[in-house]
Amino acid sequence: MAATLIDGKALAAKLKQNVLTEAKTLPRKPGLAVILVGDNPASRVYVTSKRKDCEECGFYSEEYALPAETTQKELLALVAELNGRADIDGILVQLPLPKGLDEKEVLLAIDPAKDVDCFHPYNVGQLTIGTPVFQPCTPGGVMEMLKEYGIDPAGKRCVVLGRSNIVGKPMAMLLLHAHGTVVMCHSKTPDMKELAASADILVSAVGKTGLVTADMVKEGAVVIDVAMNRNDAGKLCGDVCFEEAAVKASYITPVPGGVGPMTRAMLMKNTLTAAKLHQGL
Ligand code: NAP
């Protein structure tokens, strides 16, 4: 392997340590409320890890595990109650919601000043015009990684595979604001292979194991694998054929231990930012 491994796990630990240090200086502990509706096992794992992250960062946290039969009205009432609570700085609704619940309406109901996931249209708009209050967690985590390893997107060709609201679009926006020349690819892009192979920084956020092969990686490119897939053996893996891509890349993220831990750390950072805002700091 020629590439340097970008260690997301180590960087996330450092980031959380910094958050803890700053949280200790606040008059009041940052508070995060996490709402989980239904019994999606993957979501349950995420919620448990968020509770652990809160403990590590010295935050107050609350967890609401609601039954799958919860109505839209009940969910909105809980969000409204948390919006009004002075001890809660961040509200996170674990997605996806069970069928029958309107995700958009729920996300819109969260006070933008408590929208630590950065999904509310107000915060998406702030991000687009270049004045974000919160960093979208996954793309924000990628930018922290680039910074840590001295990789400056300015003037570089950045190719983002995937255009979801959660990853692809905000990723492209952050790279653009960092003065990268950004190309976005999606399921209707006919020449994705060629475009990917022209990238100085290649970010894959599609969710298809084995999608990014060595011929899609330019010699010396930085390869960021956002995906979290399960291969046939049930093992966690990304979109990138890691071994072959690592031979050509200059830097590469592993899965697991890459972007995943950074996403979690960025949520803590955003909750700290919200707590500071709410305490007039
Ligand atoms: P998503 O909403 O399903 O979006 C996938 C995107 O990939 C869509 O824009 C889709 O295009 C595009 N796509 C699908 N097939 C393609 C193909 N063959 N070629 C090019 N583009 C293709 O997924 P997501 O929520 O963005 O998540 C993407 C991956 O990142 C998943 O593996 C997810 O588990 C992972 N993820 C990881 C983290 C983390 O913390 N590491 C956080 C969030 C997500 P269309 O728009 O045309 O359909």
Structure in a nutshell:
By secondary structure, this protein is of the alpha/beta class. It has helices at residues 8-23, 41-56, 72-83, 103-109, 121-128, 137-148, 168-177, 192-197, 242-248, 259-278; strands at residues 4-5, 31-37, 60-66, 90-93, 157-161, 181-185, 201-204, 222-225, 229-230, 236-237, 251-252.
The strand count comes to 11
In which range does the helix fraction lie?
40-55%
| Secondary-structure-derived class | alpha/beta
Termini separation comes to: 46 Å
Mean pLDDT across the residues is 97
Contiguous low-pLDDT stretches (5 residues minimum) are none
Order of strands across the main sheet: 1-11-8-7-5-6
Oligomer: single chain
| Count, helices | 10
Name the overall outline: globular
Q: What are the secondary-structure elements, in order, as H or E? A: EHEHEHEHHHEHEHEEEEHEH
Tell me the Rg in angstroms: 19 Å
Largest beta-sheet details = 6 strands, parallel
